[in-house]
Amino acid sequence: MRGSNRVVGVDACRGGWVAVTFGGGVRMHATFDEVVACAPADAIIAVDMPVGLVERGWRAADLAVRSFLGPRRASLFVMPPRPVLAARSHREACLLAERATGNRISLQAFYLFAKVREVDRHAGDPRIIEVHPETSFAVMAGAPLAARKQTPTGRRVRTRLLAERGIHVAGPHDLLDAAAAAWSGARWRSGTALCFPDAPIDLDRSGRRICIVA
Questions:
Q1: What is the torsional sign of CA 3, 66, 203, 83?
Q2: Which letter does DSSP use for residue 57 in this model?
């Protein structure tokens, strides 16, 4: 893909963040601050984490992706309004979310809060876009994938889809997700990416429109 050497795909992992750069290999970073500092000034940084939060209600981008994914919709954790991110326990987060939206949040979504806060510090950086690898793979395949990414079959299918697009990586699902993020980032740079929703309506406090790119 044209300009793909200036695209960094990023996924959160146990040790921090894994970044895949076309033509530049794979790097591990302890923090998202480090990811941003190491990226070229003209790079697109495509990260699998919310970029931009709403002040109330649910993000339209999350709802659009979940609708698109259908049977795989549970792979995206809907992110609650910004005030809920201040919670320091799952119980507190559920109470705040219920007041703000009428619904509680999953434990898995709560566990993302620390990573979301890392990314949120950079939400005003125009180089950073939000992606969701499971959505990227669904776009590659033409439909949501049947096999979960944690299974051997799921890893094989995702490895093959990437290889068919000239992205040759093999390893754990975090690495495959970062590579899929880079693929979507390259599509964004070339102007061929899909956007969820296709007409973004939510604004982050930084002024950016909130959408998920694939």
A1: negative
A2: S
